[in-house]
Amino acid sequence: MPSPLGPLDGRPFAAVVFDMDGTLIDSTAVVVRSWIRWAQEHDVDPRRLQGFHGVPAAAIVAELLPGPRHQDALRRITELELADTDGIEVLPGAAEALAALAPAHSAIATSCTAPLAAARIEASGLKAPEVLVTADDVERGKPHPDPFLLASRRLGVDPAHCLVVEDAPGGLAAARAAGCATLAVVTTTPREELGDAADAVVTDLSHVVFSRTGGGVLVSPAPPGSR
């Protein structure tokens, strides 16, 4: 019977780079509340917010409100998101995945700014890896490859030997552009929208097990009944 992980099963990786929101933590309600309020305050049709999941806030604001209103609008969404962390939770399997890869075989590459990433990590209680790449660290965020290229460089590994775990098409595109292998989780995006963009797709991180061997990091299907 074919493995649900396809070409990823049994392939050794030097490290794993995780997206944060929607991959390791559930912040969907917070994100929706903040951006809906922002849209209402700035006379932006909330329907225009669709399709931006995983894109840095600065790029979203620049697309929706170019020109002289940009800086004030960006400052406002930053305020709203930093002020609202109620209900953020660690997603299934996320803590176990990071623990299995600690201390030096994983990183987070997020479209959040550094202050927002810190606030959400603290609110979730997640024990984050030492390498954390945020929107403040790169000139171009996802869907450009820069976040994953920087994460792999800070880990000291070749991007071609990295596995990226993502929940959004834009993040998967960024990982592919960086030359990384990709594993998608179906936490915020329908499976049919992820299949062609990823090497493999699973429901969430509780469906896989990460292990470290002499040859590197392996990802395998979780045993039946373990979830």
UniProtKB/TrEMBL annotation:
**Any one Pfam family match given in the protein's UniProt record, by short name:** HAD_2
Q: Which SUPFAM superfamilies match?
A: HAD-like
GO MF: sugar-phosphatase activity
**Organism, as annotated:** Pedococcus cremeus
Q: Which PANTHER family match?
A: FRUCTOSE-1-PHOSPHATE PHOSPHATASE (PTHR43481), GLYCEROL-1-PHOSPHATE PHOSPHOHYDROLASE 1-RELATED (PTHR43481:SF4)
Name of the protein in its database record: Sugar-phosphatase
